[in-house]
Amino acid sequence: MFKSFLSRRLKVRVAFCVLGGVGVLNSAFAIQVTFTKIADTSTTAPEGSLFSGFDSAPAISGSNVVFEAGATTADGIFTATTSGTAITKIADTTDSLPGHSPFAIMGSFPVISGNNVSFFGAYNFSTPAGAICTGTVGQTGFTKLVDTSDSVLTNGNSFFTPQISLQSISGNNVAVSVDTTNSFGVYNGTVGVPGVSKFVGKGNVSADNVTFIDADAGGVSGNNVVFHGNYSGGSGVFTGTLGSTVFSKVISTADTAPGHTAFTRFDATSISGNNVAVVGEWSSGSGIYAGIAGTAGVTKIVDTTDFGNKYSSFSSVIASGNEIAFQADSGGIDNIIVESGGNFFTIITDNTPLFGHNFSDSITLGGFDAATNTIAFSYRQGGVTGIASATFVLPEPATLCIFSLIPVMAMRRLRK
Questions:
Q1: What is 17-78 written as a DSSP string?
Q2: Nearest CA to 254 among 219, 297, 215, 286?
Q3: In angstroms, how far is CA 201 from the centroid of its own chain?
Q4: pLDDT digits (tens, 9 = 90+) for 192-235
Q5: pTM of the model
Q6: Are 150 and 110 spatial neighbours (Cβ–Cβ below 8 Å)?
Q7: For the segment 67-89, what is each residue's pLDDT rounded down to a tens digit?
Q8: Whole-number pLDDT of residue 207
Q9: How many CB atoms lie within 10 A of CB 53?
Q10: How many angstroms separate the most distant Cα atoms in the chain?
Q11: Cβ atoms < 10 Å from Cβ of 386
């Protein structure tokens, strides 16, 4: 057991420093990161066979994670702790909804908030037909929120889009994207209670007087929802409050990316409290931007022209508290980075040694919890796929300020 424990936990030091209050990557200031394997293809699933693969990175809330994984006998949704214990099945392809055939496939990117989880399961993958369900960490079983045969979605409409990445959960609130023949919209429901209602979609009007053609969910935090909205002549990122029909623009293609040309599109979006984070693109680059729910305008966090054009693209972003985690590509190398107080901390790259390997073939950011300073991610290394957590300790602001004076003091000494 002692040997097994050592093989699961790995501590490394990641280089970082601050000069004059500006974050500088890959320099001399070190932070400690502890990597813990949650599960991989040598881990036994609850039903007794080995996990065969992980289609997506895990989502995280506190010390709990939820993930989708294949096993020898079934594909399922599982929960575990960030330390890799208490792996429990919520549902798998041996289960079915009342009145339907067993699930044919479980959707990637399940979500979690506290002890609540939500996931998509398809019971007819060719149609596709399926359901959004909710469950509880550590407990096998689930409750249907809504399925594609429910009247709220029928009446000439088609189906839920099986893009579970567009699903979000916060406390008991669940926001999901619905694709119908009429429009693509955002619906909301409550954990453990069957049924959803339309939040925003075709025909709704924003506070700045644009009429939405469609909308899809970007995230929910408390009663705040962030979503992507398309309208005649443009698109943007908007926020609203559950129970209200007032929708406010954060940023749109009518706005200019700070220091560049007009935005052309918006990709990954996240919300935590009132804080919004988004990946935005313009004609020749992209960046990570932060805004406030209900307020127009964003602040640049980082873009592809910073740090000597170090990053070529950004694939995901997660807001948690006042911090932001994001994934960036640098010369074909994936980097998972946390921005805190205007400083940037590289948590892991493809070149980071993991669990007996000198590097990983790929890493993918799945979740971030600023309260515990923990990242959840998936990885592929040496033909093995798995999911893991990275817990880190950021230096205190005072430490960074003191350290930022060192280069200045050194230069003064050289001048004497």
A1: EEETTEEEEEEEEEEEEEEEEEEETTSBPTTSSBEEE-SSPPEEETTEEEEEEEESS-EEEE
A2: 297
A3: 23
A4: 999 888 899 889 999 999 999 989 888 999 999 999 999 999 99
A5: 0.86
A6: no
A7: 999 987 889 999 999 999 999 99
A8: 94
A9: 14
A10: 84
A11: 24
User: How far is 180 from 198, CA to CA, in rounded Å?
Assistant: 12
Q: Whole-angstrom Cα distance, residue 124 to residue 101?
A: 8
Q: Which long-range contacts (CB under 8 A, 24 or more apart) does 199-204 make?
A: 199/175, 199/225, 199/240, 199/242, 200/225, 200/227, 200/229, 200/238, 200/240, 200/247, 204/245, 204/247
List C-alpha distances in Å: 392 to 31, 71, 337, 357: 7, 31, 11, 20
| 3-class secondary-structure state, position 401 | helix
- Judged against a pLDDT cut of 80, whether residue 159 lies above it is answered with no
- Phi-psi region at 294: left, alpha or beta (left = phi > 0; alpha = psi -120 to 50): left
How many percent of the chain have pLDDT more than 70? Answer: 82
Quick one: which of 127, 165, 183, 149 has its CA closest to 318? 165
Strand partners, 356: none
Residue length, the chain? 416
pLDDT at 252: 97
The tokens describing 85, both together, are: 């214990």
For the chain, the average pLDDT equals 84
What 3-state DSSP class applies to 113? strand
pLDDT value at position 293?
Answer: 97
Q: Please name the residue that has the structure tokens 């479980």.
A: 106
Tokens representing 81?
Answer: 């702790």
